[in-house]
Structures are given as structure tokens and as C-alpha cells.
Design a protein that fits this description.
This protein has helices spanning 10-18, 25-44, 47-64, 74-93, 111-130, 133-144, 149-156, 160-178. With 185 residues, the protein is mostly helical. The protein folds into 2 domains: 1-96, RNA polymerase sigma factor, region 2, helix turn helix motif (Rna Polymerase Sigma Factor, Chain: A, Orthogonal Bundle); 101-180, Winged helix-like DNA-binding domain superfamily/Winged helix DNA-binding domain (Arc Repressor Mutant, subunit A, Orthogonal Bundle). The longest helix has 20 residues, at 25-44. The relative contact order is 0.10.
Amino acid sequence: MSPGGPEAADEDIIARVLDGDTDAFSALVRRYQRRILRLGYGFLKDVESAEDYAQDVFVKAYVGLAGFKGRSSFSTWLTRIAYNAGINAKRKAGRYEPLESEPVDTRSLSPEDAHIRAETAEALTKAMAALPEKYAVCLDLYFREGMKYEDIGAATGFPVNTIKSHVFRAKRDLREALGAGEGSV
């Protein structure tokens, strides 16, 4: 395992950065760039603004890296910085909206399947947009980013039971909005 390679532990990379190897930070940027860009896009709804936001988040993380105490994982700490930056940016830009699913190559789908997929994605996007912002953020971090409730709490400042409640209510509201049966979402 190389000390700064893609498989190096976050803590090892952080130690290298703090020891003066400033180039090692790029490994952390590569590792978490998609997550931060998705959050930025959710808050700002514009690709260029999301890229600027991500750059600002990574600069804040780099500058504050010496203050990282390891009480949570680096990814949780970074997500907290990103969430706070997003809340501040959102005040200027508007409401948080989770990023749609990862792009899918629809060329391999039949026209009927592509149409059904597009209609489903549109219905889900509308239903997600109707959720209260705090529900949408928790649902996005839990399902899309795969974060644990405790990590979402550390990132957002919400208590764990509140996050569980937000995720539960968001799923219930989506189920109702989409007309799905019990246990579908």
C-alpha cells in the first residue's frame, strides 16, 4: 500500500499533509470530490457554482486540517464543513435539492423502458422537491452517500433520533407522493 495512494487511510494521508507533504491532500480531494460536488449541486443547482463551492470546501478543510482531532472520521468532518458551507451558500441561492441519480446510459434501454425511466425519475424529483429541506438533506446523505445516522448527525448538527425521524418521514412522504404501496420505499 502506497503512503498516499488511493488505498491509503485518510489518517495516513492527513499525517503526511501535516508533516509538510502538501501534495498528499490531492488524494483526499480525489476521494471525496464527488460527494462534495453532489452536496454543492444540491444546494446551488448549478454546475459551475457547485464546482466553486467544492473548491471552497476543500480550501477550508485544508486550512483547518490541523484542527481535525479525529473524534469523527475525516469524511464526516469534511461533510460537516461542506454542509455548513452549503447552508451559508443556500441563504444566497435558495432551497437544497438532492442531486438526481447517477447518469445512466439510456442507449441500451428500449424506447419504452427509457420513457418509463424518465417518467419515474421526474416523479421522484418532484416528490423530493416537495419534501421539507431537512428531510431531503438527511435522506440524501443516508441513501446516496451511505452515511450512518451518527455521521449525518455530526455533519448536520441534528440529533441521531431526529435524523432517524427525518429519514422515516421522508420515506413516508415519498411513498404517499408516489402512490406506492406499503414497504415499497
